[in-house]
Amino acid sequence: MTGPHDGTPGEVPEDLTDPDERRVRDLLADLGSGGAHAPGPVPADVAARLDAALDPALDAALDAGPAASGTPASSGADATVTPLQGRRPRRRAGLLAAAAAVVVLVGGGALVLGRGDPLGGAGGSSQSSADSSGSSRSDAGSEAGSDGGSTGGSSEQPEAARGGVPDLGADTLRRDVRRLVDADRSTLRGAGPDTGLDQTGCAAPDRPGRARAVTLDGTPAVLLVRTLPDGTTAAQVWSCEGDRVLAGTRFRAAAPRP
Region Disordered: what ranges (predicted)? Predict the structure, then answer.
C-alpha cells in the first residue's frame, strides 16, 4: 500500500487532513446518490462490512508499530502501546474512507481518484474519446459509401445520367460513346424503336443507324450509332431537332462477349 501523502510503500497513513477527509466523504455520498443529493455519511452497513474486512490487516499493521516503517521503537510498554491505541481510530477512519472509495469506484467503473487529477476527468475523457471515435467511424463510413457509389456509377455509364439519359462530353466524346456502346450494345445495335426519344422530345435524324436520346454537355441531343463495313463504329451527336451534327467520333468496338 502506498501512503497518499509521501508515496512511501508499506506505510499506513496516520491521518487524513480535514479537507481531504471532507472531500472523500462528499465524493462517496455524491456517488451513492448519483449526484442528486447533498453529501452525507457513509451508509452504516457499508462501513460495518469495510470495518470487518479491514480489521485484521489494520491490527497487524498497528501491532507492527514503528518497526514496519524503519523507525526505532521507544522503550517501555506505555511508550509503545498507548500511542498506537490512540492512533487506531483515526487510522481506521482514514482507511475506511479510502476503502469505501475503492469499493465505489470498482463497482461503478466510471471515476478514477488520483492525486493531482480532477475528479470526473477520466470519465469525461473516456466519454469524449468514445464520442470522437464514434464520430470518426461515422465520417469514414460516409466517405467510403460516397467513393463506392461514384466508382460504381462511372464504370457503367459515361459521366452522369440525367433521368436515365446519358450525358456525353464534347471533350470526352469517344470515351463516353465507347462506354455507352459497351454497356448497352444490345440497345444501340439491335432492332427496335428509338431509345429515350419520347422522354426528351427530340427527333431522330433521317439517317441509317441506331438513335438514342442523350445530352451533350447538358444540352438535349440524339446519338446516332452505326457499324461500318470494316467493323468500325461511327457515332454522331445530332441536335435535338435532328437537322445538324454537333459532334462525331469513330472507334473499333470491343469484341462481343460470349
Answer: 1-43, 62-86, 120-206
Q: Which of 82, 93, 22 is nearest to 58 (CA)?
A: 93
* 151: CB partners within 8 A, 6+ apart: none
Decide: 108 and 50 in contact? Cβ < 8 Å: no
Locus of grid cell 437537322: 243
Give the per-residue pLDDT at 159.
45
Ramachandran angles phi, psi of 167, nearest 5° = -110, 115
Bridge-based pairing of strands 232-239 and 161-162 is unpaired
- What 3-state class would DSSP assign to 232? strand
Q: By C-alpha distance, which of 135, 127, 130 is closest to 110?
A: 127
Round to whole Å and give the CA distance between 38 and 58: 31
User: If the chain, 258 residues long, is cut into consecutive pieces of 10 residues, what is the mean pLDDT of each piece?
Assistant: 48 59 74 56 72 72 56 47 49 57 48 43 50 51 43 43 77 91 62 68 89 92 92 92 92 66
Q: What Å distances lie between residue 192 and 146, 197, 227, CA to CA?
A: 37, 13, 16
Q: In 36-168, where do the E strands start and end?
A: 161-162, 165-168
> Which pLDDT score, from 0 to 100, does residue 27 have?
75
| pLDDT at res. 37 | 53
Task: Classify residue 10 as left (phi > 0), alpha (psi -120 to 50) or beta.
Answer: left
Query: Which of 178, 176, 179 shows the shortest CA–CA distance to 217?
Result: 176
